[in-house]
Design brief:
single chain, about 450 residues, mainly alpha, two-stranded antiparallel ribbon, about 0% strand, globular
């Protein structure tokens, strides 16, 4: 009887819990595979560091405790690349792909899970949307790999150059930040040696932006009227990219350790790259550890915002932050409704945005306090690690490999929460079903401001 009850509960799990369980299963399975001798060179990592690595890959973060090219074999790197791809698209997208290949019909339950994984996109037409997403992903990653190969093949040879091109392309589109550049230019250097290379910079930035815009933006068929969601995403993304570029340029142009020794055009290029990658991708063409304090604070803000809903990116999302900002402006102006581009946004959406932002900020602050107490290191750099993990960005100042085990465990939790989503996690843990109060309590005013 208990066994039947278990399978009944398993079949009737909510979509959110299936997604969370799927990510956990992939992380643990990846850790088991990477523990095999065929996956690593030299001495194996500890269980904690292996789980940390697979969590970082599956949650498309990019924080690492060891150099990816130095420690992992080609097999191990391929496993990490697969985890990045699955984590970026979502494991349900992979299941859908196999269903297409096997010509198996996608069930209603699977459609509901896919809808939840894509931030609540309508179930109607979800299969057609998934086809466009999978095809678009393959197309973008192939174009990116081909373009990068023009640079990496001359630098590393045919076989190694092609592999690096594929790995960086997939990692960039999935906003993961993992790289296999090795110690040719120093471990953990990411794309610093290519700070002046226009092709590498614009290719990687293009992949990051397309992955971070969200599948709903470019995966939907073109309509006569652009949806409000798309308008907000494009508007906010443009502001953050341009504004971030300008601020990085102004804050770092005199810093000899970052932009100071570059030409004027190269400074703008490096500032642009940093503005794009900071919000969730985790690559860098300048030394993150050498950024000024002001730039590190700016980076933490951009990491907190992140990419857009239904994308490979993390953070609280562009639409969420904009709804909080515009909702506050509307309230201060005495407006009853929140209107954007001649459309009204529901109060529920605004309240949800405020809830996500407030909870994410509280989690960040509590985690920062915890890190300062137990992490050991500069408070700004420790706070940087927290925002990087929760925003699934992966940028770091070099502290990650030297953190104590308890801090690494917290980073694992933060990366998982950042990828799954605060509201999804809360819905899975706290709520069984939506409740409607039969009795409403009397209303009473409270003082604000």
């Amino acid at each position: 009887m208990r066994r039947m009850n278990f399978w009944y509960k398993l079949r009737h799990l909510s979509s959110v819990r299936i997604i969370i369980g799927g990510f956990l299963l992939i992380i643990l399975l990846g850790a088991a595979i990477l523990s095999l001798p065929i996956a690593y060179k030299g001495e194996p990592l500890s269980i904690l560091d292996t789980v940390f690595t697979t969590t970082s890959a599956t949650c498309v973060t990019g924080l690492v405790v060891t150099d990816t090219a130095q420690h992992w074999t080609v097999f191990g790197q391929a496993v990490l690349l697969l985890l990045i791809q699955v984590g970026g698209l979502g494991f349900m997208a992979v299941i859908t792909l196999f269903s297409f290949i096997a010509r198996r019909r996608i069930t209603l339950k699977e459609r509901l899970v896919i809808s939840e994984a894509l931030s609540g996109v309508e179930v109607g037409g979800i299969v057609h949307l998934m086809r466009r997403i999978l095809f678009g992903t393959l197309l973008f990653e192939c174009i990116g790999a081909v373009l990068l190969s023009f640079v990496f093949i001359p630098d590393f040879g045919v076989a190694s150059g092609i592999w690096k091109s594929i790995f960086i392309s997939v990692s960039a589109f999935c906003n993961a930040g993992f790289d296999v550049m090795g110690d040719t230019h120093g471990a953990f250097s990411s794309l610093v040696p290519y700070a002046e290379n226009i092709l590498v910079n614009f290719t990687v930035c293009g992949l990051i932006i397309m992955g971070g815009l969200g599948f709903f933006v470019w995966g939907r068929p073109t309509k006569k009227r652009m949806p409000l969601h798309t308008k907000i995403v494009l508007f906010v993304t443009a502001i953050l990219v341009v504004g971030g570029t300008l601020l990085y340029y102004l804050l770092e142009r005199q810093n000899p350790a970052t932009l100071g020794n570059l030409s004027e055009g190269e400074r703008v290029l490096a500032a642009f790259f940093q503005s794009v990658t900071t919000r969730t991708a985790g690559f860098n063409t300048v030394s993150i550890a050498d950024l000024t304090i002001q730039s590190k604070l700016l980076t933490m803000l951009l990491m907190f915002i992140g990419g857009s809903p239904g994308s490979t990116a993390g953070g609280v999302k562009t639409v969420t932050v904009f709804l909080v900002f515009w909702g506050a402006i509307s309230t201060l102006r005495g407006c009853k409704d929140v209107t954007l581009f001649h459309r009204r946004v529901s109060r529920t959406a605004v309240l949800r945005a405020m809830s996500v932002t407030a909870v994410a900020f509280m989690i960040s602050m509590v985690s920062v306090i915890f890190f300062i107490c137990f992490g050991g290191g500069d408070p700004i750099d420790l706070a940087f690690e927290v925002f990087s993990a929760l925003g699934t960005v992966g940028l770091g100042t070099g502290l990650t490999p030297f953190l104590p085990p308890i801090s690494k465990v917290l980073l694992i939790i933060l990366m998982f929460v950042g990828r799954v989503g605060i509201m999804s996690l809360a819905a899975a843990v706290l709520f069984k079903e939506e409740k409607t109060n039969a009795v409403r309590m009397p209303e009473e005013k409270v003082m604000l401001g």
